[in-house]
């Protein structure tokens, strides 16, 4: 991935309107092929301005915008736009054209032969799960959600690699919006489209984006992955944009193994005998042991069942332990860990650092504790907040 | 009635035809000039205001005076009459073209442009079809006015049904006045009806149906 060239690049881009208003100040961004970038921020913050510079609907007053390595300023805007998908909030389907003509608008501009266009229209309408005979309908004869679905597939009819979307789902009801989000996620994740979307919906951005760019007053406040933004919001503005609910939720979803693990789990080396191990279990009132080597690296685990199976307590642990057990790294996300623990009915999971040294253990009860904290808050819960709702 | 038709029948047909073609030529010229002008002016809203004011001013010149003014410039006959009527046709068509083009949903134009349509393509394939009903309404209005006003053109020697009416006035023969007026009204109504049908045909599907036409 690192060797790929950016498909869209902003290089010190600025836009100042004649009246002196600075819409965008020194904007730098590299969008890699296959990225899903969300521009989010206050209205008038510069996000739409930035997006519209990519297909030259606006030209910057300073700096360069590059598309596929070429400066867009040197490209014919008409030709450029035909190779970049464009979806806007008000859908923009041409009302006096059938859905087929709408879908095939750009292919027709590119002078595709008729049969190829028709085949493409049929293929695309299938993609959005609408019957083929809808192709002869007019936009006003279908629902708003269906219209926007046509709007989305129209933007990739000529196999555009990059799609620009300006608050595409803002006007839709939540259920329809979610379906369309699934659609664009599919386009990016499965078909490898690069999508740049302007949105004011943080949930949408967090859900879809691989990178979120936060704008305020023409400047980038933060540009990072959703997880990074949730974990380390750049300032109060970002935190406010995310909202307290999501911050709280993020604490759970983005908590790492090290934040909830129990430190100093009971462990033993492989050279002790089963008998000694049994004594250790007994002393600590536990039924299994983590087995480590001299440098405290995880090499196995010993369950009481295994001890009982081999009655001969003189045997060495290292020969009877369960070798190379499942473990997680200390910086793994809880969201992935808990799935494994629950689905595989594990009682616990050793936590290791990147040198495979054991640093802790996560048990089912540590998950339960975390869940309780999330639902009822910590030791001093804000009861008032709950009553208010 | 029958005797009137026997006496003036062929003359009536001829004059009706004159009336019609003077009006229609003036109207066609009006469309040819005002529609493209209105579309172009859509890009220069300030100039558009000025132009609409100018054509409004022309509209306020009394029609008889305008016709009379043509005499020193173009002499008498059909040509000056057509010029005068043409000037009258400009305002409704120009104004409606401007309004129609202005009324096209800007996001529609934005998305068409954003997909890579040229200015011409946006205009011909998107804006114009959407603005057409309003433009057509202007044309219909012009057509009805022109047919009515073409009556006065007889005053400067252009012929038409005005000849009957003025003769009737001069000779005090009410049947001539009525015989000239009724065809004018019928002609205006018929034209309005036919243009109305055409308008409906040209109206984009999304703006069609639901109540009576404009």
From TrEMBL, chain A:
Q: What is its EC number?
A: 7.6.2.9
Q: Where in the cell is it found?
A: Cell inner membrane
Q: Which keywords label this protein? A: ATP-binding, CBS domain, Cell inner membrane, Cell membrane, Membrane, Nucleotide-binding, Repeat, Transport
Cross-referenced InterPro entries: AAA+_ATPase, ABC_transporter-like_ATP-bd, ABC_transporter-like_CS, CBS_dom, CBS_dom_sf, Gly-betaine_transp_ATP-bd, P-loop_NTPase
- Does S-adenosyl-L-methionine count among this protein's keywords? no
Q: Name one GO molecular function term.
A: ATP binding
GO biological process terms on file: amino acid transport; glycine betaine transport
Kindly state which reaction or reactions the protein catalyses.
a quaternary ammonium(out) + ATP + H2O = a quaternary ammonium(in) + ADP + phosphate + H(+)
Q: Where is the ABC transporter domain?
A: 8-242
Q: How does it sit in the membrane?
A: Peripheral membrane protein
Domain CBS: from-to ranges: 261-317, 321-382
Which family would the database say this protein is a member of?
A: Belongs to the ABC transporter superfamily.
Q: Quaternary arrangement and interactors, per the entry?
A: The complex is probably composed of two ATP-binding proteins, two transmembrane proteins and a solute-binding protein.
Name-wise, this protein is: Quaternary amine transport ATP-binding protein
What is the organism of origin for this protein?
Limosilactobacillus secaliphilus
From TrEMBL, chain B:
Coiled-coil residue windows? none
List the InterPro entries: ABC_transp_perm/SBD (IPR051204), MetI-like (IPR000515), MetI-like_sf (IPR035906)
Q: Where in the cell is it found?
A: Cell membrane; Membrane
CDD domains (alphabetical)? TM_PBP2 (cd06261)
- Entry superkingdom: Bacteria
- What membrane topology term does the record carry? Multi-pass membrane protein
Query: Which keywords appear in this protein's UniProt record, sorted alphabetically?
Result: Membrane, Transmembrane, Transmembrane helix, Transport
Main localisation, per the record? membrane
Domain ABC transmembrane type-1 residues, every copy: 16-195
Q: Which GO terms describe its biological process?
A: glycine betaine transport; transmembrane transport
Question: What transmembrane ranges does the database entry give?
Answer: 20-39, 77-94, 131-156, 176-195
Mention any one GO cellular component term assigned to this protein in its UniProt record.
plasma membrane
Similarity comment text for this entry: Belongs to the binding-protein-dependent transport system permease family.
Mind telling me what this protein is named?
Binding--dependent transport system inner membrane component family protein
